[in-house]
């Protein structure tokens, strides 16, 4: 048996502040050349990505919970913002990208642990491992579908009050492929970083042209803590066709006879699909596999691009008694 808890909020924003007194158009031009630092790691992955406030141009909303907010902005959701959008306001893409996740079937707020996975959301892939997430959306309000390419400023849904929420609002964050929120700056925010209790006018107008840079790659080094390094993986990203045939290869750093590749529900728990792979004497392994069996084990399955099937993928050594366990996993969006 394996169990892993997946953070419920996954949003990725990367905004760039380039001067309090410049116009937005000037900010956008300068931001594209900015040398952006992410956190204290020196990560420059978001350089060239311009983010604006995630609501309509000319609208003004207050930040009711900011970075490190004590109610729910901690851990994976530390670098996040809650804007006080009333229900039914238009939510806009903060930057251009590809829609990889649409969840819109939840209808109510649920102030208990299960509510953390019952909020309607949209996730946009901006390429290079950077994503943005828009949470607590109104039921059945999505204006986009899985696989759509959107530009900055494009309406994507309506704000709501679903999931772990006490009032209508929009939760927004930029994150990596694991759902870890990232520090960012907004191009249309005077000080770059919105502060709790303050109001901000959006200048997020529709982008005139946008070219998607390509799917974010699956993070192949993520299972190093399990003693496994992936050396080859044919996933086209984090959004996968269950009818596809894929290949994975890697090497273990601690002796074991098998590794297990397995899928869990997106909030963790018992695997619904697993593939055990033999490890050779030199510590290497490799295998072709299909995710076709996932649909049968998933229980509920959406065949529509209007509602995403979300799971968590992990790779771990198999113990002598046949069990396996992982403290880390990667969200996958399947169709």
How are the elements arranged and paired?
Blueprint: H1 24-32, E1 60-65, E2 80-83, E3 90-92, E4 97-103, E5 121-125, E6 131-135, E7 149-150, E8 155-158, E9 170-175, E10 199-201, E11 228-233, E12 239-240, E13 245-252, E14 258-265, E15 273-278, E16 284-290, H2 294-297, E17 309-317, E18 330-334
Parallel strand pairs: 12-18
Antiparallel strand pairs: 1-2, 1-10, 2-9, 3-8, 4-5, 4-7, 5-6, 6-9, 11-13, 13-16, 14-15, 14-17, 17-18
In short:
4% of the residues lie in helices and 29% in strands. By secondary structure, it is mainly beta.
Describe the structure.
By secondary structure, this protein is mostly beta strands. The protein has two domains: 1-214, Glucose Permease (Domain IIA) (Distorted Sandwich), CATH 2.70.70; 224-334, S-adenosyl-L-methionine-dependent methyltransferases (Single Sheet), CATH 2.20.130.20. It is built from two helices and 18 strands. The protein has helices spanning 24-32, 294-297; strands spanning 60-65, 80-83, 90-92, 97-103, 121-125, 131-135, 149-150, 155-158, 170-175, 199-201, 228-233, 239-240, 245-252, 258-265, 273-278, 284-290, 309-317, 330-334. It has an eight-stranded antiparallel beta sheet with strand order 7-4-5-6-9-2-1-10, with no helix packed on it. Strands 12-18-17-14-15 form a five-stranded mixed beta sheet, with no helix packed on it. It is elongated. Mean pLDDT is 86; it is low at 1-45.
